[in-house]
Amino acid sequence: MLLILLTIFFAIFVFIFIFFSTLRNIEGYTAIEMSVEKLTNSMLMLRRHEKDFLLRKKLKYKSEFLQEYQHSLALAKALNKQLQEYNYHGPEIQEYLNNLKLYRDNFVNLTKAMQERGLDEKSGLYGSLREAIHKVQNYAKRKKSTPLLAKLYELRKNEKDFMLRKDPRYAREFIENFNKLNCMSIDKSMKKYLIAYKKEFLALVDIETLCGLNENLGLEGKMRDHVHTTEKLLHTLETNILRFELKEKDIMLKSMYITALLSIVIVLFLIFSISNNILKSLYIFQRGLLDFFDYLNKKKKSIFAINLEQKDEFGKMAELINQQISQTTQFLKEEEEKLDKLANCDQLTGIYNRRKFNELFELHLNELKRYEKPFSLILIDLDDFKKINDTYGHIMGDAILKKFVEITKEIIRDVDIFARWGGEEFTILLPNLQEENAAVVAQKIRKAIEEYKNDLIGSFTISLGVTSATPRDTLDTTIERADKALYQAKAAGKNRVVVYKESLN
Prior knowledge:
Blueprint: H1 2-56, H2 59-85, H3 92-117, H4 124-143, H5 146-165, H6 168-180, H7 188-211, H8 218-259, H9 262-296, H10 313-344, H11 354-371, E1 375-382, H12 385-392, H13 394-411, E2 417-422, E3 425-431, H14 435-451, E4 462-468, H15 475-491, E5 497-499
Helix pairs in contact: 1-2, 1-8, 2-3, 3-7, 3-8, 4-5, 4-7, 5-6, 9-10, 12-13, 13-14
C-alpha cells in the first residue's frame, strides 16, 4: 500500500509538472492556430475578390484583391516568425509565400488580358469586334446582297457559338466560312470591312485562349493550380501544427499513465472501451432501424446505411438491415423515376409533355427577367396529319409522330426543351437564342423532315412559327405569337418557317 501511495504521489507530482509545462506550450500553439486561421480567412477573401472580378468584371475587385494580398503577406510573415520561436522549421510557410506571389502575378496577368479583351461589350476587343460587325452588316444591307447576308449570318453564328461555348472548332468553322466568301463577288470596301471583322474576331479568339477556354486552361487554369497548391499548403501546415501539438499532449498523458495508476487505468480503460462500444453499437443500430422505419413510413426523404464496422453480432445484423435498405431504396427510386416520367413525358414520343413544358418555360422566363438570358420558341404543326390518319390509320400516324421526334432530336441541342403541345403540334424552347438563330434551327428541322421518305406514305412536311420571348411575356402571349406565325406559314402554303412580326397581327 505504501508503495502504491508513493507511486500515486509521484505520479501526481509528475502529472502537475507536465501539465503546467504543456499548458504554456498549448497557449503558444493556440496563438499559432489563430494565425493560421487568419491566414486561411485571408486566402478566402482573396478567392472572393478574384471570383468577384471574374464574375462582375469590375476593376475595384482587382484593387481589393491586391490590398488583401498585402494583408495576407503580412500575416504569413508574422506566422513564420511564430513558428521559428517554437522551433518549427517546416517548408510549408515559405512555399506558401512563393505560391502566393505566383497567384498574385497570375491574377494580375489575367486581369490585364481580360481588360484587353474587354470588361463589357463596348470595351476592348469586344467593342472593336462589335464595331467591325456593324460595319460589315450595314454595308451588306445597303448593297442588298442576300447571298452575302446569308454568309454573314453563318459567320455570326460561328462567332456566337465560339463566345458561348468557348470551343476552338467554332473558330475553325468561322475561318472556313470566311474563306468561302472569296468565291463571291465582293467590292473593295466590303472586302476591307470583312478583313477587319476577321482580324478582330481572331484577336478575340487569341485573347480568350490566353485567358483560358475553360477553368483548367490558360491563365485561369494556371491561377487555379496556384490557388489549389496554396490552399493545400495551408491545410498541410495546419495539420502538421495540430499533429505537433497532439504529440506534446500525448507525451504528457503517456508520462502520467506510466508513473501513475497504469494497471488500474488499463482495466478501467478496457471496461469503459468495451461498454462504450457496446452502447455505441446499440445506439447506432437502434437509430438506423428507426430511421429505416421512418423512411418506409415516408417521414424521411432519404436513408443511409447503418455504419457499424464491428464484425460482431451487431455488425452481422447491420449487414442484413443494410441489404434491405439498399434493396428498398433502389426499388423506391425506380418507382419514383417511373412516376416522374409518366407525369412529365409524353407516353407516345417520350419527350416532355405540355405540363412539364409549362413548368420549364416559367423557369426560363424568370431567368430572362432576372438575368436577361434570352430564349426563343418554335411552334410546329405536321401538315395534313389528319389525312395521314384517315388514309393510313392511327398506327401509321403514331409512327410518323415518333419519326418526326427522332429526326428533330438529332438537330436540336441538349439544352433545348422539346415537348408535345397536343395532337400533332409540338414546341421547342431554345435557350440563349434570338429569333433569327431560332429560325435557322427551324429551317434545318423543316428541311430534314422534307427530305425524309417513308415506304408507305412517301414524305410529309411541317410548318413552323418562330418568336422570341420578352420580359413582359407570359406563356400565353409567347405561344400566341408563335401560333400566329404558324398560322401564317399554313396560310402561305405550308412546309415553311415564319418568324413572327408585328405585321402578322
